[in-house]
Structures
1.
Amino acid sequence: MVNEETIWAALAEVADPEIPVVSLVEMGIVRGVALDGQNVTVTITPTFSGCPALHAMQADIVTRLKALGCAEVRVETVLHPPWSSDWISDEARRKLKAFGLAPPPPHGGHITLTFFDPVACPYCDSTNTSVKNSFGPTLCRAIHYCHNCQQPFEQFKPL
């Protein structure tokens, strides 16, 4: 029997296509689930309105929920309120760091951070780091360099 709890559990298994160590639920991208019999509508908010992985996320959600037994799956993209890095779960922050991607600091909606604030290296925790490029392989990441362990790393930007 498909219910809201089983749907959320299945969605928790849908990996972020760009960062496969975290799920779309852990990243705060999945915002809601509405169930009408065996039909489900999933609401998502991508990290950026032009996120290149948007179609992959939608397809992965549909595939996973149809495999669960949902008759019809609709994925709605909502851009308001815009996605916030505060929506990333604590577990996802831990996984991002273990993956070598510095997680953004929580900001509670008061973003006073700049791209030049010290960012802790995910490898050695040093803040003796510098920005090498404000834009990494995706719009939501920046490239940094750690002067202590001499490792380049990416940071998920605080948004």
2.
Amino acid sequence: MNMNDRTSVVNFLFEIGILSKTPRSGFHFLGSGEQSVSEHTNRVVFIGFAMASIEKNVDMLKVLKMCLLHDLAEGRVSDLNYVHQKYVKRDEVKAIDDLAGSLPFGDDVKAVISEYEERISKEAILAKDADNIEWILSLKEQVDTGNARALEWIKPAIKRLKTDIAISIAEKIMDTNSSDWWFKDKDGDWWVTRNR
């Protein structure tokens, strides 16, 4: 591979654009909400940053790379929800191998994703918890807008959490209305007069 050839890098940048057009399929079955893989990944990165900032003895860069790359294969294999995964085999390893084989930084991509999938390191466990916390947040938003089914879906998602920080965040999510940040000062005059 010519390390100075930028064609593979540009193709990679175009390819990751498809993640913004790849829907997360669970929402179809939930009956409300929608989200692309890119939207999911964006919030997972911020969750990973927050949790790695609070946790001690964690490699922040590694957590962020795992959060950023964890669903990269879905641009090639799509997003399969839990029911789909029961019946359909997708070859994410081949998708990542093919993609990484064309990139000058492909070995790093493969190493990060491989460590994430093994779920042995503290960083991988934290990154997976960030992935699950994002799903819990998305479900809680649906609960708060009236989808009672979403509350049932949250229960197994919370059971998947492994770290104390993720469990404590999930507990707080369940006690917080998803619009509280917006109406932080809802009893103030701003919401009535906007200080006019």
